[in-house]
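Record 1 of the preview.
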Amino acid sequence: MTEIDQFWIYNGSREWSLRQGGEEQKSVPDLSGLTVDDAKEALSLAGLSLGDIYYETSDENGKVISQEPAAGSNLGAGASVNIVIGN
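->
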């Protein structure tokens, strides 16, 4: 029997990352319409962390208008999710 102890996984953000075997995968929640604080809390509850925050002109002032990787993507526990906030 052969055991695989590491593999490469595509995380939906145009990047490949090395994952160690047995690492727990977490599903990225939908952060659309949340404030920065609410997005940070939602990510924490999902076992993920908030990455970079970008700002873009939008009618959705102070709310998440996009995220990378997309909702439903699977990431390793503790991985970060970047967000764009409307201003």
